[in-house]
Amino acid sequence: MGWGTLRRLVSKGGSLFSGIVLGSKIRDLTGGFNAWNRAVFQKVDLAQVLSTGYCFQIELKYRAALNGLSWTEVPIIFKDRVRGQSKMTGQIALEAVRNVLILQRRVKRG
Length: 110
Hints:
Elements: H1 5-22, H2 38-43, H3 55-66, H4 90-109
Helix pairs in contact: 1-4, 3-4
């Protein structure tokens, strides 16, 4: 993959953390290459989605699963960028952790 340690930790750790907290069997909650069927957006109430950053990917996959929608995970390999910089910041990572915890509490309450 050619990823640095921090990038691997953020990717694998974020997905592992989210999966444990949410009790989800989705293998890669943080993966960013997704193609969505129209049915997802018709069944998932997007007005209830609280995430705006990268956590949106986690939340949308989780809400889709809660609504009985299924998909196939197709592994891909993202190579390290050659130019530019990542948009990932500590603030975005903290938002993701916070939103996963909030999402878990909301689901428990129904």
